[in-house]
Amino acid sequence: MRLRYYFRSKYLKFNLEFAMLAILIGLISVFFVKVVELAFNGFLHLEAILGWWLIAYVPLMMIFIVFLLKKYFPEAEGSGLPQVIAIGQMDDSSIQYYFKIKAIFSKILLITLGTLSGGTLGREGATVQIGASLMNQLGRNLSLQRRKTMLIVGAASGLASAFNTPLGGIVFALEELIKTSRLKFSLFKMTGIAISGVVSISILSNYSYFGRVERNLMFYNDKIFIAAIVIGLVAGLTSVGFARVVRLFMLDKSPLVSWRKNNPYKNA
User: Average pLDDT per run of 10 along the chain, which is 268 residues long?
Assistant: First the structure.
């Protein structure tokens, strides 16, 4: 009986479009990976040519990127993940601002330019926002709550393809959707997330985004146990310090934050 629901003429077009968008998210993710890799190789080539001129090249490129961001692509500001986390609190106008179709082009363009300039701009958060932007086109005529569900599913599809982990995308969607009981999550939407991840895997192969653990390290010994504790403590303390520095520069109401907001080009 459940299968008949998906093949009713009323829902068939929507379900087919949903499946096609899931595939498209995976394909755009693959394209994004290839473009960023090409940009990084281009920077390495420029590095060898420019030499000390990199001191001028990098900040000038950053100023140019900030100019494009402020003038033409304001929706591309941010990494992409904070916007997705805030979906539950957004209204229609905010959703349309951050997840318009233009955001797909602007994210790819600016991150590619940033990588070409030697900047450490990750594509993963952007891919998550791109996935949500694509699914937003399908959910435009739905109610606000159902539209938010589509956005989260799109973001999870982007995450699944960006990190090569379909299951990770599904878990992310579940974590976001259970924050409110009003958002429903069906098996069909879960399948869409998996489709995006599988598309990425089928093209880029089943690589491990975070690397692989050597076989010998999987066996317990005292040295590995001590090293794990030390590394864990150092990594934890470093993370706390980094988070506080980021908060100082980005969140706290300090003169430094005010200066950054009022002088974007100097900050770049």
Answer: 54 80 88 90 88 87 88 82 80 84 89 87 83 85 80 85 75 66 62 81 70 59 78 92 79 68 67
What's the pLDDT at 5? Answer: 52
Q: Which two tokens stand for residue 241?
A: 């310090």
Query: What letter represents residue 258's amino acid?
Result: S
User: Are residues 37 and 118 both part of a single domain?
Assistant: yes
Do 228 and 117 belong to one domain? no
Spatial CA neighbour of 256 closest among 266, 82, 174: 266
| Burial of 63 per CB tally in 10 Å (0-12, 13-18, 19+) | middle
Q: What is the CATH number of the domain that holds 25?
A: 1.10.3080.10
Would you tell me how many other CB atoms lie within 10 Å of the CB of residue 107?
A: 26
190 domain residue, yes or no: yes
- Of 184, 204, 224, the last residue of a domain is 204
